[in-house]
Design goal:
5 strands
Length: 129
């Protein structure tokens, strides 16, 4: 499975909403796997990934309608958590992020995300409502 850095947060905060029916169906499948398996290997990529594949905003490989914003989300997540393009175990990485993230870091990474104010990201990732 391929995931981009900021999708490490999206998959943890996801609560069943999305950009389109196809996107939600794919996100449900991916998130279910990540939340129920013990050790899911993921290839961290700084480009379009398995979630982008069903997003109506994806225009082409490594090109999103909101490309600059999406790249900033990825860059910030990578900087805060020292992420590199390589293979990780999702559950270990998600646990590491939850132990180290602060509400201010999450707000900084997700600044400008249309889902951040409307989702349960803050509570699911930091434990704070």
């Amino acid at each position: 499975m391929r995931l981009r850095p900021h999708h490490l947060l999206c998959t943890q905060g996801y609560s069943g909403k999305g950009y389109s029916e196809a996107f939600v169906k794919n996100m449900d499948k991916v998130v279910h796997r990540l939340r129920t398996e013990d050790k899911t290997p993921i290839e961290l990529v700084f480009s379009t990934d398995d979630l982008c594949s069903c997003c109506p905003d994806m225009l082409d490989t490594d090109l999103c309608r909101e490309n600059e914003k999406v790249k900033r989300f990825d860059r910030k997540a990578a900087e805060y958590f020292g992420l590199e393009e390589k293979t990780y175990i999702y559950q270990e990485l998600a646990s590491y992020i939850r132990r180290h993230i602060t509400p201010d870091m999450l707000a900084d990474i997700c600044r400008g995300c249309s889902w951040y104010p409307a989702s349960a990201c803050r509570e699911k990732i930091t434990g704070i409502k």
